[in-house]
Design brief:
The protein has 16 helices and 11 strands. With about 425 residues, the protein is an alpha/beta fold. It comes from Paenibacillus taihuensis.
Length: about 425
């Protein structure tokens, strides 16, 4: 958290927020924000928690505008590639897609399943499927997962597809994945063995990925996306192997491997869509807000927001929109893999960015930092981040020191937010 600020300074910040902000009373109020973001090639849509309804519905509203009015070609999310690829098949009306929405969303069966198995995601997926219905196959909007956790699921998907197509790479895949079998499908078991006994499967999965990359490069249009699926699953295997090793060792490496993987997966999907590719990325603020504008920089941590800005050819190629709330409720657990609960989000701490926005106007609002001249937006404020494990009674540790105008290009604020609606029962 930022040190206590003086009353005159505080009032000056609140006044600047009032001048820059726009009321948010209905989805259409977001159109100027979508228009500003729509010039970019990659729009990053953040959330302050993985369990708040408004963050999902806001991103859905912005995504619809970006797709319909600005030609965005796919949505990529902080989710597992195999599960999200089931969604992709469904919204694109693929011949091998699952037959119902419920069956598709049941693919999200790993904790925290509520991140994507919720009614807010169901509404987005329903819209995407309808939007794609009359479009030619090459113009249909995709839905992909960028995360690195699905090591065994990704290996299963590769074997399954290589079997179906009688691929010559099947034997190489079996050999690579046999290396992981002694670890009982537990990433931590593998990480312990690799970290402390130098018994890794790295060479095998790297060699397989190279074969899958080469295969996609020479693939036909008809099989191109299936080959992309194999390639990204192979990439997951390579980077998950590295991730689980580093997780056991500790330090910033595991975080950095994960975020670098997400950017690499994003880049490969962008390449698949060609020169017209325009991506919408849904992830937590801690991933999409530039790490260099937070205390992550001092800890040698990078994130998606920083990496895509650094690789962009033009500054306007990336537009990052963060979000936050003053108070409300959220879906989270009190420990990893514990039952999900509806938890209270207490009023934001005094002097935090969320509290200052509340004081500027106790209503939903948004503002654009990009091009903002006020130096007050370039100071450091505490900015709340809620994880899938959340303890409302220990709020101070949930605030990330952030230079808001450098972390994001814009910000959407909800004065009072509400827990999303999971498809599974909530723990009473």
């Amino acid at each position: 958290m930022k040190r206590t600020i003086s009353a005159p300074y505080r009032e000056a910040v609140i006044d600047e927020i009032r001048k820059a902000s726009n009321k948010l009373e209905q989805d259409q109020d977001l159109k100027p924000l979508a228009d500003a973001a729509g010039k970019a090639k990659i729009v990053l849509l953040g959330e302050a928690s993985h369990g708040t309804s408004e963050f999902y519905t806001c991103r859905t509203a912005l995504s619809k505008m970006l797709i319909q009015e600005h030609g965005f070609t796919f949505i990529a999310v902080e989710g597992d590639w195999p599960s999200c690829y089931e969604v992709n098949n469904y919204v694109k009306h693929a011949p091998d897609a699952k037959s119902s929405m419920d069956e598709v969303l049941q693919s999200f069966d790993r904790w925290p399943s509520w991140m994507w198995a919720n009614t807010e995601t169901r509404d987005l997926v329903t819209w995407l499927r309808e939007y794609n219905r009359e479009l030619p196959e090459s113009k249909r909007v995709g839905f992909y997962g960028l995360d690195v956790y699905s090591l065994w699921e990704s290996m299963d998907e590769i074997i399954k597809h290589l079997k179906q197509t009688n691929s010559p790479e099947l034997e190489a895949a079996r050999k690579a994945f046999a290396c992981f079998e002694p670890h009982a499908r537990e990433g931590q078991n593998y990480g312990m063995t690799a970290a402390f006994f130098s018994e890794t499967c790295q060479d095998e999965v790297v060699q397989l990925l190279a074969q899958l990359e080469a295969k996609r490069s020479g693939g036909t249009a008809r099989t191109h996306e299936a080959l992309l699926n194999d390639e990204i699953n192979g990439l997951v295997a390579v980077n998950a192997e590295r991730y689980y090793q580093s997780m056991v060792r500790g330090g910033p490496d595991s975080w950095n491997i994960r975020d670098r993987h997400m950017v690499e997966a994003l880049n490969r999907v962008m390449e698949f869509y060609g020169s017209a590719a325009k991506a919408i990325v849904w992830e937590h603020n801690t991933h999409i807000g530039d790490a260099r504008a937070t205390d992550m920089l001092a800890d040698d941590m990078v994130n998606v927001g920083q990496l895509v800005r650094e690789q962009a050819q033009q500054p306007d190629d990336v537009f990052a929109i963060g979000s936050g709330t003053y108070r409300g409720t959220v879906i989270a657990g009190d420990a990893w893999e514990s039952p999900l609960e509806v938890m209270r989000v207490p009023p934001a701490m005094k002097g935090s960015w969320e509290e200052l926005m509340h004081e500027a106007g106790a209503h939903d609002q948004w503002l654009i930092f990009k091009g903002a001249e006020s130096p007050l937006f370039h100071d450091t404020y505490g900015h709340r981040a809620i994880g899938v494990v959340y303890h409302p009674h220990y709020e101070r540790g949930n605030y990330v020191p952030s230079v808001m105008a450098e972390r994001y290009d814009a910000f959407v604020f909800y004065d009072e937010s509400h827990a999303l609606t999971p498809l599974t029962p909530v723990h009473a």
